[in-house]
Amino acid sequence: MHPTLSVGVVCDYAEEEWPSMDLAAELLHAGLRDHAPGYAPALLRPRMPRVFRRLAGGRTGLNADRLLARHLAYPRWLRRHGAMDLYHVADHSYAQLVHALPAERTVVTCHDLDAFRSVLDPTAQPRPTWFRAMTGRVLSGLRAAAHVVCDSDAVHAELLSYGVLPPERVSTVPLPAHPDFAAAPDAAADAEAARLLGPVEGRVELLHVGSTIARKRIPLLLRAFAELTPVVPGARLVRVGGALPPEQRRIAAEHGVADRIVELPFLDRKTLAAVYRRAALVVYPSEREGFGLPLVEAMACGAPILAADLTVFREVAGDAARYPARDDADGWAEAMADEIDRLASPENRQTARDGVLRRAERFTLSTYASGIVDVYARVLAES
User: Fold this and answer.
1) Residues 6+ apart with CB under 8 A from 345
2) What is the mean pLDDT of the chain?
3) CA-CA distance, 57 to 51, in Å (whole number)?
4) Residue 60 scores a pLDDT above 90
5) CA proximity to 181, closest of 313, 318, 295
6) Residue 201 CB: number of other CB atoms within 10 A?
7) Which of 265, 340, 91, 293 is nearest to 181 (CA)?
8) Phi-psi map region of 211: left, alpha, beta (phi>0 left; psi -120 to 50 alpha)
9) How far apart are CA 122 and CA 116, in angstroms?
């Protein structure tokens, strides 16, 4: 019998409240725990020191504490932590921690290159010298890792195009949907979704899940939704991921759709799955993504998808999603109306559901764990 190998899953600080990165770490831990019997994963996550928050408070204090914690406190904590056979940094923006770990036995997951653009392409994303120096330290940690796992071939190719790492030290292992995301009804979760959103009858719910940062293109979605409402009277937009910022609220008000938007915070997984299941259409207009985990979650729940025509989205969703022919508000409004009309047919709705569920079978926790274990085997063989 082979010995069980310990794996330290290095997580983001919980105080950063970054749900997608917290989920990435949780998926890694769950996949190894449940589908890799030769490995014993442990979540590594210290508490963020409260230094500047005590003095300044607010966002300024939090950001100052983040810098102190990421670059000084966390590395110090890791050096004191008990030895593991392997380490896996679940978020590439924490790759500076590789310098505090045995790099030859450390893997990093790179979800996208946004964190490094000020160094990799300083003309396109100019930043102050101190910021680029800090980012360079994070990038040097990524370069020092024994292996880097990308969520998608698109990010994999971009990473290689910048010469960050040699090809033999980079692999693609797509993220899975958590098992809580499923097409089967869940009475308690469905009831909670109904409590939050009311009855679905008479409504056509378009769903967007994620943050409101610029690359998500929420203003485009709001304008397209405003054009849709005259032709789909029962349409409303459900946003999961927090409230719209003031500028986006202004756009919604100017276009007369503020009262047709329901804003929900980040939800527990089972409730979110119920929200996916009741959606008439999941919409994802991002201009840039490293993967698109909401697409995988939506497919696991049997929800139809309309996504921006990005290489990475076609890699993830393939023919299971539809892509607007024109990438502007008019094009999105027309595509949403066409999809809603097409899916009004029970036969078409069932065909769409069958297609997304077949595609979702590529993104299971067991498949993900198998890909990660293959990476670990290579690292151990070379260390």
Assistant:
1) none
2) 94
3) 9
4) no
5) 295
6) 6
7) 293
8) beta
9) 9
> Where do runs of H (alpha helix) occur along 209-300?
218-228, 246-254, 269-278, 293-300
- The answer to whether domain 5-176+364-382 and domain 187-360 are alike in fold is yes
pTM here? 0.92
Q: What CA–CA distance (Å, rounded) separates 279 from 183?
A: 12
CATH architecture under which domain 187-360 falls: 3-Layer(aba) Sandwich (3.40)
Token pair 């979760």 in the structure block, residue: 189
Q: CA-CA distance, 112 to 102, in Å (whole number)?
A: 24
**Is 63 a residue whose pLDDT tops 90?**
no
The residues spanned by each domain of the chain are 5-176+364-382, 187-360
Kindly tell me the sign of the dihedral angle through the C-alpha atoms of 240, 246, 252, 258. positive
Concatenated DSSP letters of 334-369: HHHHHHHHHHTSHHHHHHHHHHHHHHHTTS-HHHHH
Q: Is the pLDDT of residue 22 over 90?
A: yes
- Report how far residue 362's alpha carbon sits from residue 328's, in angstroms, rounded to the nearest whole number: 31
Q: What is the pLDDT of residue 269?
A: 95
Distance CA 374, CA 172 (A): 11
At residue 287, the 3 state secondary structure works out as: coil
**Roughly what angle, to the nearest 10 degrees, separates helices 19-35 and 365-382?**
80
Residue-level pLDDT at 2? 63
C-beta pairs of 331-334 under 8 Å, 24+ apart in sequence? 331/224, 332/220, 332/221, 332/224, 332/283, 332/285, 332/306, 333/224, 333/225, 333/227, 333/228
Q: 5-176+364-382: what fold?
A: Rossmann fold (3.40.50)
**In terms of Cα–Cα distance, which of 19, 26, 15, 63 is closest to 211?**
19
The residue written with tokens 């009741």 in the block is 278
Is residue 260 within 8 Å of 236, Cβ to Cβ?
A: yes
